[in-house]
Protein 1
Amino acid sequence: MKKLKLGFLFSVLFSFFLGTAVLAQQELPIALDGLAKSGSFSTSINLILSLGVITLIPFFLMSTTCFLRVIIVLSMIRQAIGTQQAPPNPVIISLSLFITVFVMSPTFDEVRQTALTPFQEGRITQKEALSLGIKPFQKFMLRFTREKDLGLFLEFSQVRYTGVKEDVPIFVLIPAFIISELKTAFQIGFLLFIPFVVIDLVVSNILLSLGMFMLSPALVSLPFKILLFVLTDGWNLVIHGLLMSYRGP
């Protein structure tokens, strides 16, 4: 129940933040009556369908941006240090959101220039706007998707592959991108765990040699791990590494 509440809260915050950012850049009013221009359904049904699609936007953005890698790495840092709720979940989520917006700002800007602005000026249709708006996300995901992961979903989807990565359907590319990001995040997490595990082993051996069997090694090693992380300016190094991992070639 707690996880469901946290997921719902994050979805609301993510959609509100990105929606506010787009509106702040565009300075354009939202016209909901344009969503209901259909001859096959009533206005109420179209509005319900539109709101249902809008609720999926945060999950789409989480799956097609760098958010997955960032939040997994930051969560692993907290677990490696051994601090249970420091920093708390809202802080990790907020930091991940801002890093995601920072990294994805060129992609968002490209979507605005190629799809959103021409559509609102009436130069392209809604279908063309959706097609053009997906391409920047597709280009971003292709840069960080492993060929092995992409081949896995291409094989099971039975899609005829032409050899051009840009022609890969979005429903094939998104899951391939997700598992590629998960693998990369766990690789980074493994490297982050090593120095803290070494500290735990050293402290455990010292306590055993002193005969302090009843004293928890984690309790003694925690201050040393925090001290190591602070002295090495750990947050700066980790965020720098994350940003460098998304740096263009």
Note: The chain has two domains: 1-64, 65-245.
Protein 2
Amino acid sequence: MKSILMLTAIVFTAANTNLYGNTLKVGIGLPYSTIQSAINAAGAGDTVKVFPGTYNEAIIINKNIVIQGSGYETTRITSANNPTVTMGGGKLMWFSITSISGDGIQATAGLITNDVIAGCGRYGVNFLQNSTASIKNCVIVGNSSHGVEGYNNGYNGTAVNCISRDNGEYSRGFDGLKGVTYCDGSVSAQSYSNTIDVDPMFASGNDFHIPPTSPCYETGNPADVNPDGSRSDMGYFGGSDCPTFPVITRLVIVPIGNGQVQIQATAQANY
């Protein structure tokens, strides 16, 4: 994360057009009201774009698609299920994920990138037996058991550029994984390198920006880069998949007649 700025935009709506091509949209007033219904309809290579909201559902990803939220600040998947997300492939990005009673994510394959997994009743992420899944540039915080678990120390799954802090069960950040590199959090893994276990200096309890003085700042995998070309940060606001779109913090909609509205939005940009 290189800079934070505030911006105000005024937008006039026009007729609804599909700007996304092969993208399935989820949200209020959109073609799909649930994430799972869009996943079921998607084909290999499609993107399921999830607009801001809290989605109270457990989802199953079992095909080669991208599930893309609108930022952890505004796009949340939560359930009382164990797990909230079952992942057997694809790519999951830009969400906040919680399971009240169990694991946030159980994965056998696929990529979990630039998500926040927090407040789960068990593991934040559980790589199941023989899992080939990986987690990258995520924040895993405040879960009841280990942040990331490799199926009972079975050494499954890999983690890179992640921050896993303040989890339960000995506060273990990464336990039993095949490999952990360039991560912040306590580690028990088959192989690990360039890991630290220190305070990442988050902006606040729910704002996961880090300052230039953070030990996680530009200390991620040097083979990966931030959107501005600098070395990857650890955590949500780092890496090649870091969301660069503005996050809206204030929205006012004013009808102006003739079927049009004026939208006044104040947003915070990450870069």
Note: The chain has one domain: 20-246.
Protein 3
Amino acid sequence: MKVLVAISHVPDTTTRITFTEDKKALNKQGVTFIINPYDEFSLSYAVGLKEQNKAKEVIVLCVGPKEVESTLKKALAIGADKAVRIDTEPKDAFIVAANIAAYAKEQNFDLLLFGKESIDFNGSQVPGMVAELLQLPFVSFATKMEIENGKAKVTREISGGSEILEVELPLVLSAQKGLAKERIPNMRGIMMARRKPVEVIAPTETQPKVETLQLDYPKGRTQCKFIDPENIDELVQVLVNLGALN
């Protein structure tokens, strides 16, 4: 079985976010970037499949400029066999999905794994777009998967519970926490990753569907107004002023 794991190069969760002067992009100066945490679940699962001799090759892919190669190297250290970078700026979800789909179409993957979303934009759009472009079945928010005889038995989160599905391979899947435990690269993996090259390929000619006009911080929380529980008249007046009572 041949497995593709698509990863995102995202700011560390402890990063203090600032924007460029035009407010159209993240100010990357001094920012530490990591593998998107949800993508790590997918990567760890794929490496586990290889250890179980269920996968022959695990390829990790990222769409982005040269700076994302540090993240790809970490993925190699965790256990991926090969790293691929598609050399284009990920301007929107469609650009990313179209490039991943174009690469995957030529490679005949049995399983395409993603995180449920990236922690920088939280869009949760790319996996579904890739599935549509490739005309493959798609399961989102997976927390467990068992693969036998060309079929995947997948448990996924739904509102108020979980759902178990059986799907034919090839399959596109997005992972939620629980699919696999994150792996920490050991020294041997880190040394081997240094010797493995990152394959760089040209992007497809695709135009973005979305234009970023401005990024801004969320509005701060308003202060709470405390009212003495004995002062019912004041409470009623406040609710009327807020439009909560007529």
Note: The first strand starts at residue 2 and ends at 6.
Protein 4
Amino acid sequence: MNKSANYNLTIIVPVYNESENMPRLEEAFSAYLAKASVPCCVLFVNDGSTDDGREKIMDMCSRHGDFFYLDFARNAGLSAAIKAGIDYAESPLVGYIDADLQTSPEDFELLLPYTKEFALVTGIRANRKDTSFKRFQSKFANGFRRSMTHDDATDTGCPLKILHTSAAKRIPFFKGMHRFLPALIRLQEGQNYKETPVRHFPRTAGVSKFNLWNRLIAPLVDCFAYRWMRSRYINYTVAQNNL
């Protein structure tokens, strides 16, 4: 049996060349899991790291019974890492947080109360600790995305989210998917999302994997991919069956 089925929440942590952050990740998740309001496990997804992150992930998982991992054969990107975590999770809820720890696992507690009513609960980064140029890029990209998708979401780039696993598994996969989770959830009949403020911290170790292309240009291109996919999205309701 898939071990994640023993938990209420599987927290997906995509990892790409974050070796310097591994000690903080182990400490932060050990502390959070000990006091979380629901049984949680952590699923690290090594996205083809070229540093020694793979070995450190395996070492962490050998020391903690609630830590698990997926190891990609090669780098596939953030959306692929999130999707793989969703595909392998069998808990009722799946969460997502970045390995840079610019958001805190403890703030999953701010999201969990809303999961009874919403298929997706996502953070909004309050008092962002990024440069003014990064904030400008995000503000511009968010504005363009809203005009294209009409999802009304404030901060889709916030790396702190919880989804119903059943809804998450129905999300269509494409590169850049992680930027459109509110819009993709709304495509599912009767499903909606909730935003709530969470804390944001400066990066203290490692190097950001984002640049002008993947923070600003690529999201604009992905909006057109979403629009194409939305026009062809399949929704259906089964009235009855005899399976």
Note: The longest strand covers residues 9-15.
